[in-house]
UniProtKB/TrEMBL annotation:
Protein name: Dolichol-phosphate mannosyltransferase subunit 3
Origin superkingdom: Eukaryota
Record field: transmembrane: 7-23, 43-62
First and last residue of the signal peptide: none
Any Pfam family hit: DPM3
Annotated membrane topology: Multi-pass membrane protein
Subcellular location: Endoplasmic reticulum membrane
Keywords on record: Coiled coil, Endoplasmic reticulum, Membrane, Transmembrane, Transmembrane helix
Length: 93
């Protein structure tokens, strides 16, 4: 099962439960708070998803490791490529 199918299944389940709750709570028989909560539940879920996503991205950027050896190796490969191109007659700044 691909991630797309998993996400679509979860979204479909959420929409189904939300629609059932929204339709099954009559206006006169529920509190305003419950009706308001059910009405804005998709917004709250989206807001929670966004906060969690930004938190995960921020944490991974904060804990990102530098690769000093790889950076030196890449710079050396760039210099080697420039030298090779100069030998072949290219002008490089």
């Amino acid at each position: 099962m691909t991630k797309l199918v998993e996400w679509l299944g979860a979204a479909g389940l959420f929409v189904g439960v939300w629609a059932y709750l929204f339709i099954s709570t009559p206006v006169g028989h529920s509190t305003d708070f419950a009706r308001h909560f059910v009405l804005f539940l998709p917004f709250y879920a989206l807001l929670a998803f966004a906060v969690i996503s930004v938190s995960i991205i921020a944490w991974r950027v904060y804990t990102f490791n530098d690769c000093e050896e790889a950076a030196k190796e890449l710079k050396q490969e760039i210099e080697d490529a420039k030298a090779d191109l100069r030998k072949k007659g290219f002008k490089i700044e």
